[in-house]
Amino acid sequence: MSAGAHDPWAVLGISREANDEELRAAYLRRIREYPPDRSPAEFERARDAYGLLRDPARRLELRLSTERPDAPIVSLLDEEEMPRNHVGPGPWLDAMRKRRR
Amino acid sequence: MPSEAAAVRQLIASGAHKRAVEHAKELLRTLPGAASEALLAEAYIARALAFEPSMQAEARAILDLVATRCPSARDALAVARRILDVRGGRLDEIVTPLLEEAAAPESKQQVLDLLRRELDDLGALGWCAALPAGHPLRVEAVHLERALAAVTSGPVTDEEVALAEVPRRSALVAWKLLVRALVAFHRRDDEGCTRALSAIPPDTPPARLVDVLQALLRGEVPADPAGASLAARVAGASRPLRETFTGLDTALEKGRAKDVLRAIREAVTECRSVRPHLLDRLRQRISIRCLERDDLTPDRVRSAMGGAAVRDARFWVLRARAAEERGHAFSQAVAYQLFARHAEHEGLMTHAGPERAALLLRVADALAGAPADDLSDAASRSSRLRDLLKEEYADSSEPLRALAAAAAAEVHTWLDPGALYREAAAIGPRREVFERWLAFASGRGDQRGAEDAAQAWSLAHPLDPAPVLHLARSLEKRGAFQKALALLELADERGVTDPALARSRLRVLVRVVARQVSKGKADLALRAVEEIAALPLVRSERGAAFVLALRWVADARHARAVQWRDALCAAWGGAVSADVLLALVGAACGLRMADPPRSPTLADVAAACHLGLEFGIELSIPAIWRTPLLKQLRSKSVAAGDAVELVALARSAVQAKERELAFVAAGRGLQGDDRSLDALLLLMRAKNLPDGSPRRTRECLAAAAELARRARDTALLASIVAADPMHGEGGGRSGLLSLERIEESDLRRILERERGDLGYPRDREAPLACECPACAGRAGYGAGEDPFDEDEIDDLYDDDRPLDLRDLEDLKNLVGLPPPLMALFLEATAKYGRYGQTPTPEEVERRDPELAARIRKALLELTAGPAPRRRKRRRR
């Protein structure tokens, strides 16, 4: 499950520690890559992400609200991307054989 | 027989092979015959083929048994044996027809179909000695095996898994599709993976992994043990982990302390084994959730977790948010301070950055809502906080201990809203920040603090008139008129333009006139009047009349006063009207008229009050005018003037503390045609009702608020809310919308009533039918202060204490306190309250431990949920 779609930092391709200059540069890069006439949806996402992050109060609110203190413990499992480990062919073939009907 | 056969086949299809065999045996016994025999053979074969890969010998034994008992099933048994051969990797005989040129195409196809459906060991085919090394099937199997190993062992290039050797019609094409699906899976190309999976033929061995991969894509755990085990290896996904986390959530919500601690231990153990990278976050979440539980001390929780939660920016923001949601301003402030420190340490925020400014504002606003006593009290606990923080970080690394020490050293500034606003303004000198700072200081009655805020604001925004106005008003209040004038002069030179500044200057100059008159310094008074006369604000007929009145005041002890009076008579509609104006303006300047009018007309008084208000002077109506004015206000035959003048009259009455006069004047104003002042007039009615009319007061305020909302007059709305007896320090934490919305019909009713009533209520309102706090609150009786203050700082750190009186913080907003609890509060107040003040929790504990224990018990009973069922012990 990817959180990138709703993460403005991920939309602009920058880290959460990026400063204002880096933010602006990333935004300009993004809208040059996705101009409104060719990629309107991506352009809008980039513009909305920049709008959120350039306002310090909204950026702070975003940073403070990524996790709810009263969220169920089980939501920890829902929030992160499950790893996709390389475990070799053995476990896959083992499961295949055990799952014969 | 057909239905019984169908039932047996149904059991076979659902995997209940043992039962299928039992049923088939029973059927053969009851209905012997070839069909039953064939059915039994079918059941046995299905059972044999369902055995684990490691039970090949047992499977063959069953087939041999079937061969002896059911000779007619010879063909089916042959097929079954071939299947077992393929599964067991014994392919030499199986593949022989592929090498025989004379073999019929059907038999070659049968071999290919068998391999397609049953081969799950590519190596067996790749190294099958019965086939030549270059045989296409061997080549395909070898490449597929190699590609499968590569794609499941690490990242691969497209060339490595191109598998051009495996054509589309190959018997092994399902494996090629599986390789493609796995490539996409590991590259997180979920769409590509789904596409490849959907193309895998369902009757092939790779198809057995389709639902497992689909579950992994959804982030779920397959239900069967083999699938779940694979998911645990590949994705760290674990059904037990999800279940233990869910169990922990349930325990935290409803369980007793020991249940919670047990669930914590289980969750931590499982998490450590399956998702070790989540352990820190799990501990943080548990730590925060356990704050809601007073029966769990930090030590017990730490012990159950097998270690303390990591203190970092994420931890402290959770802690701050938890305190924020509970309305604990001080805990929130401390937690945010620590969050800020950690965020800077972790590179998430810069020290003087705009996010820090936003955070400072957030904390300042929360603290600004706390009662002043709590603020000063909290500041004195900062030294205790330093010790507590030291303890909390005792196990942390040196840099973090230093960070905590630095935070503790300045925690007192984080509990001071003024200091926070100041710092926020220094980082980001936005107008909004200064406004909030000034509003806070003014609201606390901190004149110096407010002046500091206004000065900083003016420095940052030299052309903004608001801070200048505030400073001028503040200086005026202090009687520093010359300083106020100098400030206004400077602002004017700087180019700050605003009509309010001009009015402020006029007002101060009038105060100067009054002061000089009171000191008997006519010349200086006149000089001030000349300055007033030069102001653009008074360059109108009305302004000229006002100046004439002031000249008369300045020259009151001089013969020149007569000429000013004469000029005013000409300008102001006659001697009677002029005398009324002079009497009021003179009184405002501390000058008593020798022979004031005894029964002035309502119109003259209203006009004079309006003139005074227009030029910034609140005139005060003399007590001797009360009776004649009231008579005229209540008489329909007497013209009252317009609503604006009546508002001015009402304000002048308020200035003179003539509540009845103000009340009736406002009522008369409501009878006029101008609806735009109804909200203001209702407010004036509300503010001037006698004390025994709380219901009517609240109704007038609610109606005024509704009208102000409709007119979007936020300034008036703020005044209305401030007039609400339930608003303010120690009362409800209300914002601009604290007054209830009312229905249109009620609004009309209230307006009609107030318009039609020019009397003045003398009697107290009748008692309520129901006096419970909810009904009393709605009726406008004050909620009163909560008898037991919450000690938030102790609540943050003093987790060892038993449930106590301070926990009432969570209850004080409950409407309808249960009678037993209310009775205990009243008992405590009656016994130990002083001068109407309720006793503090400490006092009750000290003076009457028995009463304190009874209150604690009542609280516990109120807050505890239903007791969980006890588990019955099993008798062995």
Offer a concise description of the structure.
The complex is a heterodimer of chains A (101) and B (876). Chain A has 101 residues and is mostly helical.
What does this entry look like structurally?
The complex is a heterodimer of chains A (101) and B (876). With 101 residues, chain A is mainly α. Helix content of chain A is 57%, strand content 0%. Chain B contains 47 helices and no strands.
One letter per element, helices H and strands E, the order of chain A comes to HHHHHH
Most extensive chain interface and residues per partner? A-B, 45 and 74 residues
What structural class results from the helix and strand content of chain B? mainly alpha
Global mean pLDDT of chain B: 85
Largest sheet of chain B: none
Distance between the termini of chain B: 49 Å
Percent in strands of chain B: under 5%
Computed CA radius of gyration of chain B, to the nearest angstrom: 45 Å
Q: How many DSSP H or I helices of chain B?
A: 47
Q: How many DSSP E strands of chain A? A: 0
pLDDT < 50 stretches of chain A: none
Give the assembly state of these chains.
heterodimer
Largest sheet of chain A: none
How far is the N terminus from the C terminus of chain A? 31 Å
Radius of gyration of chain A: 20 Å
